[in-house]
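Please, is this right?
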Amino acid sequence: MMTLSVLTAAIAPGIALLSYFYLKDRYDSEPIGMVIRVFMFGALLVFPIMMLQRALVLGFGENPFVFSFLFSSGIEELLKWFVVYYVIYKHVEFDEPYDGIVYAVAVSLGFATVENVIYSLLNFTSFSNLLMRALLPVSGHALFGVMMGYHLGRAKFQPSSEKKHLLFSVGLPVFFHGVFDYIILVSKSNWMWLMLPLMIFLWIMGLWKVKHANARSPFRAVRREDEIKI
C-alpha cells in the first residue's frame, strides 16, 4: 500500500502539469493520443540518459559546472529537443505556435515523471520530500519544455527567423536547466534563497510565453469570426 501511495505521489505532479499546459491551448487542442505518445517518448529517454550520464561521470569526474551544464542539462535537453524536432516539428498536427509548447512539455514531463518515480522508490523519506520535488525538479522540467516549445513554434511559423529560434529552443532550456542543477550542487545550505527567485522567474517567463504563443495562433481570427456570427 505504501509503494502504491509513493508511486501515485510521484506520478501525479507530471500528469497535473501536463494537463494544465494542455488545457492552456485556447484555440485548437492537440489529439490526446499524440500527446500521450510524445510523453511516452520522454519517459523512454530516462534509462539511456542515466547510463550515459553515469559513464561520463565515471570517465571524467563530477565537476559541478561540467555536470550541471553538459552531463545533465546538455544531454537531457538536447535529446528531448531531438524527439520534438524529429517526431513533431514537421507533423501535420503541429499547426499553431502553441503546439510546440504542448509537445515539448509532454516530452519533458514524460522524462521528469519516470525520473521522479525512480528517485521516489529508491530515496523515499517523506511525502513532504515528494512535494518539494513536485515544486522544483518536475515543474522545472515543465518550464524548460515551455521555453523549448515556444521557440520551436516561433521557428516553424516565422521562417525568416527559423534558425535563430531553433537555437533558442535548445540553448535556453540547456542554460536554465544548468543553472538549476548548479544551484543545487554548489549551494548546500542556502540553495533555497537562490532557487526561489529562479523558479518565480521561470514561471513568470513561462506564463508569458504561453500567453504570447496563444496570441499568435492562426485559429484566433477564426474563433473571433465564429463568435461574431453567433
